[in-house]
Specification:
2Fe-2S_ferredoxin-type; disordered C terminus; 179 residues; binds FE2/S2 (inorganic) cluster; DNA polymerase, domain 1; iron-sulfur; EC 1.3.99.16; Aerobic-type carbon monoxide dehydrogenase, small subunit CoxS/CutS-like protein; 2 domains; Ubiquitin-like (UB roll); 2 iron, 2 sulfur cluster binding
């Protein structure tokens, strides 16, 4: 029996410990938001978080998640209860990122792990973090734009609570954030 937490809920899985985590998520827990693409850690479609790190669930045995915390695309919006959509999901909608959509849950999970570790990534950091996520529709520029947009929104929130910021500075931040 494998015990783990998935999107904040305790789960027990009576499965082969060598089974890929992706299989357990999709087949045993009916969480089909995480996709199978290549099965060999080359496309990123199966990306989830394990203890806060982006991992390829197609090549990660479920036993590696024993006692761990897994977050899938189904739980991305609920990581902080009451906060609604993750800022990346909002940015994805605003920038109209998805085409066929197949790669998108993996893209979002990689991007979310990036912003968790680096809230203000530059182009090189975004390229490095997203290099393993392939998009057959070629939406790379929109993905990068959405990540930058989400990062700028996060900075605006921080600055709006800066007691040293002037009212005018807050207005500037708000205008940029929405412009
Ligand atoms: S399905 Fe896991 S990296 Fe492609
Ligand atoms: S949106 Fe189609 S594969 Fe990325």
């Amino acid at each position: 029996m494998i015990s783990l937490r998935v999107n904040g809920e305790h789960r027990e899985l009576d499965v082969d410990p060598a089974m890929p985590l992706l299989w357990a998520l999709r087949e045993n827990l009916a969480m089909t938001g995480t996709k199978f693409g290549c099965g060999i850690a080359q496309c990123g479609a199966c990306t989830v978080h394990l203890n806060g790190r982006a991992i390829r669930s197609c090549v990660t045995p479920v036993s590696a998640a024993e006692g761990g915390e897994v977050t899938t695309i189904e739980g991305l919006a609920d990581r902080t209860p009451g906060e609604g959509l993750h800022p990346l999901q909002t940015a994805w909608i605003e920038k109209q990122v998805p085409q066929c959509g197949y790669c998108q849950s993996g893209q979002l999970m990689s991007a979310a792990a990036l912003l968790d570790s680096n809230p203000n990534p530059d182009d090189a950091a975004i390229d490095a973090a997203m290099a393993g996520n392939v998009c057959r529709c070629g939406m790379y520029s929109r993905i990068k734009s959405a990540i930058k947009h989400a990062a700028s929104q996060n900075r605006a929130v921080v600055q709006s609570f800066d007691p040293g910021a002037s009212v005018n500075a807050e207005d500037d931040v708000g205008e940029k954030a929405h412009g």
